[in-house]
Amino acid sequence: MKALKIGLSVLAVAAVLALYSAVHVNNTTVALSLLLAILAISARWGLSEATVASVAAVLGFNYWFLPPVGTLTIQDPQNWVALLVFLATAVTASQLSARARRRAAEAEARRTEIERLYALVQSMMLSGNARKTIREFVHTVVRVFGCRAAALYYRSTGEFFRSGPESNVVTDHELLAAAEIESVSVDSDRGVALAPVRLGLRPLGSMTLIGRLPSEQTVCAIVNLIALTIERARAIEEASHAEAARQGEVLKSALLDSLAHDIKTPLTSIKAAVTSLLSSSDHSERELLTIINEETDRLNQLAAEVIEMARIEAGKLHLEKGPVVVAELISGALADLAPAIQHRPVKVRVPDGLPAAEADHDFAMQVVKHFVENALKYTAEDSPIDISAELKSGRIVIGVADRGPGIEENERVRIFEKFYRGRRHRFDTKGTGMGLAIAKGIVEAHGERIWVESEPGQGAAFYFSLASSSGAGHT
Amino acid sequence: MSAGKILVVDDDPQIRRVMKATLVGHNYEVIEARTGEDALEKAPQEMPNLVLLDMNMPGMGGLETCRALRAGSDIPVIILSVRNSEKDKVAALDAGADDYVTKPFSIEELLARIRAALRRSSPESGPQAFHSEDLEIDFQSRRVHARGKDVRLTPKEFELLRYLVAHAGKPVTHRELLQAVWGPDYGDEPEYLRVFINQVRKKIEANPAKPKYIVTEPWVGYRFAGPTEG
Q1: B18 vs A273: CB contact, 8 Å cut-off?
Q2: Cα–Cα distance between A267 and A276 in angstroms, integer?
Q3: From the list A267, A272, A332, which residue is nearest B107 (CB)?
Q4: Looking at beta carbons, which residues of chain A come within 8 Å of B83?
Q5: Residue B64, CA distances (Å) to A83, A420, B79, B156, B209 in order
Q6: Residues of A in contact with B80 (CB under 8 A)
Q7: Could you say which of A261, A279, A297 has the minimum Cβ distance to residue B56?
Q8: Signed CA dihedral, A253, A256, A262, A266: sign only
Q9: Which of helix, strand or coil describes residue A169?
Q10: Residue pair A445/A439 in contact by the 8 Å Cβ criterion
Q11: Do B18 and A275 touch (CB under 8 A)?
Q12: Residues paired with residue B173 on neighbouring β-strands, in sequence order
């Protein structure tokens, strides 16, 4: 191909020389015409063809046009100068033209590569699965860039993704090594490009292209693109895991709700039936029916506390905080416990002007209830209970004090544990043993503190704190 | 003579059974419905005096059923639910229920609630009428006319308004109001008042956010401001 072009170039020069041998013109015209032909050759084909044509033109011009005509010698020293200028001009012009041509070809190649990169970007399907994304990417690179094969090593799973058996030219080992180096290596003799895939400084793996190779910059662009794509697929994957986890939590919460419903529904029938019988029963049956009724209540309480505890442990307490009037909190709790505290001396001390607390009304009330229930459980039937609330260094502290046996120092932390009962009461107390653990869970969900103070033999006082609501008010 | 006709709406057959047995034993006539849809179909046919409505039912559910019942009538509705939070109670009252009972309940408690819901003060006691420029109440015929329009109040809303008007100008405590309107077993349900007062305000006040008639007495309760007070 090259030889043919060179032959044709020489022929073109010969044609110009022949033309001017027939038509008589001055030598300058001949030289300029030859120059024009050489320029055309270099623009069309390249430097080597133009150089050969230049030499041929110099020889021919000298032989046929410079005196003495018919020899390769030159008489007039001026003609030497002209000939050298001609040669220099021809070669320089050829070089410039050839360079321009090369640039254009390079620009064209770059354009094609950019088009292909763009096609690659466009064909990247967004899926929430990093491995699937990589597999597709490898095949897309081969298709879009027209190389023979490609392969990618994905570090986080240690897998190799290959476009096909042709990619075995590059071994797993080479890919592993490429992941550790910094730079891209393009071996055009072997037709292999190897590049690390990194995101910033974080190595994600490595990639190889085999066969027709795009430029080094394009290889860089391809690996950057896959790095970004992997990262995005991973982010989506993680987001969907988080979503799955969230849905799991929602499900758990729904299960707890339906469990509460399913346990309470039969209890409702039992309670309604037994209380109905109680209201019309005679004395002999009354005792037994009362037991059924009380145990139904106990079962109901137990179910409620087990579900509550499960909810706390699952982190499923949904607090709806708002300003809560502390006096109402306490009176509400006492109202719920009304039958049990009927004959108890209960004293409530809430100072006037105590700001409202910022809390979930229902849950905060439950804490008070658990405290009072606890006091009821561990003290004699006529023993007084003191409930107080006060503002202490910006927080509202609510306390329930009893005059029971008190709590030994080594038990003061453990009593807030699930199922823990005071040593002396292990076998003689009703209840689930979860009341204080639930209270603790609720208080901690508020980000507040719960504690007990006790003088053994004198009694115990349970406290919890609540934030004070800045926008205190009551309507 | 029957003490009243009660529509029991619950998806659990055992609960319907025990309710039927008990309520019939207390002289009530009982109709059962398995779902909210079923209840909406039966209510207009049977014209019960009261509805006991389970909150958690498959299908349209208690709250929606309550709203649908309310849209067509002012029949007393008591919602029964296993949930015990104030949020759920308020949601039920907001949907138009007159009362809320937590499952499981003792039958005495339920009967007391039923009696309270059915109870209406006799029209002879208390004020006969109230007139001002944009509010007219006729306690005899139970008609309320506010800002040029007839307003429909549910029986509990009406009782609430009647009690406040009867004590116009004086603050009425939460407890007093609850016991007067719902019955002597009540007194610790301030959320009931919040919901019902809001509903009455929406119906009779020009601007419910800045009430002219039913005024909040902070920390105490409510007061009906008569026209003389401006």
Answers
A1: yes
A2: 14
A3: A272
A4: 260
A5: 106, 43, 12, 20, 26
A6: 268
A7: A261
A8: negative
A9: helix
A10: no
A11: no
A12: B221
ipTM entry: 0.70
**Count of positions (residues) in chain B:** 230
Distances (CA, A) of B122 to A246, A428, B159, B162, B178: 56, 53, 10, 11, 18
Q: How far is A360 from chain B (nearest CA, A)?
A: 10
C-alpha–C-alpha distance, residues A210 and A223, integer Å: 14
Interstrand relation of A192-199 and A202-210 (parallel, antiparallel or unpaired): antiparallel
Q: Are residues A50 and A20 in contact, defined by beta-carbon separation less than 8 angstroms?
A: no
pLDDT tens by residue, B63-103: 999 999 988 888 899 999 988 887 888 899 889 898 999 99
CB-based contact, A267 to chain B, within 8 Å:
yes
Half-sphere exposure of A182 (CA within 13 A, CB side): 1
Q: Residue A282 and residue A286: Cα distance in Å, rounded?
A: 6
Residues, chain A? 475
**Contact: B18, A267; criterion CB under 8 Å:** no
CB atoms within 10 A of CB A119: 14
Bigger pLDDT: A119 vs B100: B100
Chain A's closest residue to B25, CA to CA, is: A276
| E runs forming strands in A4-154 | 149-154
In contact, A279 and B108? CB cutoff 8 Å: yes
User: Of A117-126, A137-146, B198-207, B216-225, which has the strongest mean pLDDT?
Assistant: B198-207
A279-287: long-range pairs with CB below 8 Å, 24+: A279/B107, A279/B108, A280/B25
Cα A254 to chain center, whole Å?
28
Please name the residues between 245 and 264 in chain A that touch chain B, using a CB distance below 8 Å.
Answer: 260-261, 264
Q: How many CB atoms lie within 10 A of CB A314?
A: 13
Residues of B in contact with A268 (CB under 8 A): 12, 15, 80, 82, 103-105
Mean pLDDT (whole number) for B109-117 = 89
* Amino acid (1-letter code) at residue A391: L
State the number of CA atoms in the 13 A half-sphere of A370 facing the CB.
28
C-beta neighbour count of A111 within 10 angstroms: 10
**Residue whose entry in the numeric block shows the structure tokens 């003792």:** B106
Encoding tokens for residue B102?
A: 């937590």
Query: First-to-last CA distance in chain B?
Result: 49
Global pTM exceeds 0.80: no
Give the pair of three-digit tokens for residue A69. 């005509």
SS (H, E, C) A259-327: HHHHHHHHHHHHHHHHHHHHHCCCHHHHHHHHHHHHHHHHHHHHHHHHHHHHHHHCCCCCCCEEEECHH
Number of H helices, E strands in chain B: 8, 12
Of all residues in chain A, the one with the smallest CA distance to B219 is A474
User: CA A277 → CA A15, A232, A286, B6, distances in Å?
Assistant: 129, 67, 9, 20
CA distance B27 to chain A (A): 13
